[in-house]
Amino acid sequence: MNSRLSLVARHLTRPRPTLSTAAALSWRKSFPITAMASASTADERSSRTIHTAACLIIGDEVLGGKAGPKPSTNSNHMAKWCFNLGINLKRIEVIADDESEIIEAVRRMSDRYDFVVTSGGIGPTHDDITYSSIAKAFGLPLVLHEEAYALMKKISKPHPGQPNFSWDVDSPALRAKLRMIELPTDENRELSKQVIFPCEELWVPVSVVNGNIHILPGVPRLFERLLDGIKPYIIDRLIDPEGKGTVRIIISTPLPESEVAPYLTELAARVESKGVKVGSYPRWGMKTNTVTLVGKDKEFIESITPEVVQAVKGNLVTVEGEDDETEQPEKN
């Protein structure tokens, strides 16, 4: 077809693309939708104070050991992001591109944690099923997002491998691109609460489903930029809106774990009521091990640090391993 097609209008007015009435009823029998999927509950989830978080990494390639960026790249960035904001990251899971796995995981995480991020499975190919799976999880239709479509056309650069691509002509390539902006949409809630654009220079939206599930791409560079861009949207919901986050004190000790274990056990019990966690980590092949004090009460943690340093005969360090010395094999 050579004339301009009303492609967007077709997408916006067509029946729900993945959930016909019969299909929706079938899915509700297989995966019963509880009260947590109601509009009022979703609104409550989108405004509650954020204490806990979870991260769901989706992708066969991650489980298959695909070469390239380390599978832990996104989860590691998520962990640091949460730590710096004082959010308690409670769970990180990696699952396959499997519809039933995604449905089960997002429902469970949405119910248990205040803030949930998914990574991966939102590209243009057949195995990118995150949007459709999460839509089914909460009985929602996939709807083409007009603003995202306009930004995609404006910001996207022509690909040398698609010299004849046109936004005005229906084609498999165009339909593939549109899959990336057909988002799970609750028609009973404000659209602005369900889709955000954290980075002005990117057309990529962050779909927010059931009030607390934030769907991000798996490409580490995009994941990191979008997650960092979400901060202004949630800053008022943090326990500490000033962003002081969590405090971590790192102590390097030359003593073996078995030597410091009795003291650290007593210390952990003593400081638990203050929300402080005591950690001990062996560093194989090195002359020192690591002891950590982690919590939100900076004043209290700093007050007990000298005692801990003395008890483990250690030294304060800024970065674990900065005083590394490799153990030398004993000479015969």
From TrEMBL:
Q: Name one GO biological process term.
A: flavin-containing compound metabolic process
- The residue ranges of the MoaB/Mog domain are 54-237
Gene3D superfamilies from the UniProt entry: MoaB/Mog-like domain
Superkingdom of source: Eukaryota
- An annotated Gene Ontology molecular function: FAD diphosphatase activity
> What is the protein name for this chain?
MoaB/Mog domain-containing protein
